[in-house]
Amino acid sequence: MKGFRFVVSSLIAATLVISAGCSQGESERSTAPGSVDDSVAIEEVEESDADGTNTTTATEYRVLENAALPDPGTDPLEMILELRQPGEPIGSEQIRVSYPTIDQAVVVWVQRGLLDDSVQSTRTRYEFRKVEGSGVEQPLWEVVQVTQQHKCHAGRGSEEWTGELCL
After folding, report:
1. What is the mean pLDDT of residues 77-98?
2. For residue 22, what are the domain limits?
3. Is residue 160 part of a domain?
4. pTM score, two decimals?
5. CA-to-CA distance for 120 and 115, rounded, in angstroms?
6. Cα 112 → chain centroid
7. Full DSSP string of 103-152
8. Whole-angstrom distance, CA of residue 123 vs CA of residue 110
9. Does some domain include residue 128?
10. Angle at 151 between CA 146 and CA 157, to 5 degrees
């Protein structure tokens, strides 16, 4: 019965978000352990991480110089979903998008339960800006910076979100 309620509430939440349009505000996608399903519900979330900690500022992240970047597109969330690697086993993931200003979008992608001996979780932050001269109704977005944080396994570095690499 719980599973049925979850599916129904997920469908209702997805319908509400789709009918309201998800071009502004903040939304989140998450997948169950081992899942790579892109059709999960998008819901409004608060300004804190799923584990209850406050959202960290971009200055506490480590800048990724050689990160894989999507081509400019009309939806920052969809652009990040294209970067996902199907079949990579992870415990869970969350993808959240917010629009701090009309010309800026931020996508935060959290992956937990990584199969790595030192890194427990990663939080990657993609900062987007509207491409100058792109349309008003369907603007193009481009990535301007990618930063990342890690939580390390016990004895391998910080067990809190940090921009420093795990040992």
Report:
1. 87
2. 2-152
3. no
4. 0.65
5. 8
6. 12
7. TEEEEEEEEES-S-SSEEEEEEEEEEEEPTT--SSS--EEEEEEEEEEEE
8. 4
9. yes
10. 115
What's the token pair of residue 126? 């993609």
Separate counts of helices (H) and strands (E) for the chain: 2, 6
Contacts of 123 (CB under 8 A, 6+ apart): 49, 56, 61, 108, 109, 110, 111, 148, 149, 150, 161
Lowest mean pLDDT: which of 12-21, 48-57, 63-72? 12-21
Asked, for residue 161, whether it belongs to a domain, the answer is: no
The tally of domains found in the chain comes to 1
Say if 76 falls within a structural domain: yes
DSSP code of 39? -
SS3 content of the chain, % helix, strand, coil (to 5): 15, 35, 50
Which helix (H) or strand (E) segment holds residue 77: the answer is helix 76-81
